[in-house]
Design a protein that fits this description.
With about 140 residues, the protein is α+β, with helices and mostly antiparallel strands. It has 3 helices and 4 strands. The protein has a single domain, classed as Pantoate--beta-alanine Ligase, Chain: A,domain 2. It is about 50% helix and about 30% strand. Strand 3 and strand 4 form a beta hairpin. The longest helix has about 55 residues. The protein is rod-shaped.
């Protein structure tokens, strides 16, 4: 009877087969490639957000300059486009100041200031346009 128990123990597998190992490596590789792809997409998105934030910070600085110029009564209606370098990227901006036509009450005291900031990102043009009302020169 003891010799049958020994034979039974020889038939139970004690290690992984080569096929099982190859399948587990294949599944692991597919999972890691999906994670790596997600990581690359996240880095691209973070870079795009960083460029947008830089453009908005530049726009805020330009609007503060426009507000100071408005208070000093030195607004020009449409200066030429200019370029600013920030964080290794060139941003071009153009401002436009127009009269308000929708409301006579607003048009009496305010002007509409628009600022468009453009930059190139991965071979495509991106831009941000901001608008605000400024006190009118008297």
């Amino acid at each position: 009877m003891t010799w049958l128990i020994g034979v039974n123990n020889l038939r139970t597998p004690r290690a992984f087969t080569l096929v099982e190992l190859m399948l587990s490596v294949l599944i692991l590789g597919i999972g890691l490639s999906a994670v790596a792809n997600s990581y690359i997409l996240a880095l691209r998105g973070a870079n795009s957000v960083r460029n947008n934030i830089s453009a908005l910070i530049l726009a805020k600085e330009k609007f503060q300059g426009l507000e100071m110029a408005s208070l000093k009564k030195a607004l020009s209606s449409a200066p030429a486009p200019e370029t600013i370098g920030s964080l290794g990227k060139d941003y071009s901006y153009q401002q436009e100041i127009t009269e308000i036509t929708a409301s006579a009450d607003l048009a009496e005291h305010l002007v509409l200031a628009c600022l468009k900031i453009s930059w190139n990102e991965r071979n495509s043009s991106k831009d941000v346009t901001l608008a605000t009302y400024l006190p009118k020169q008297k």
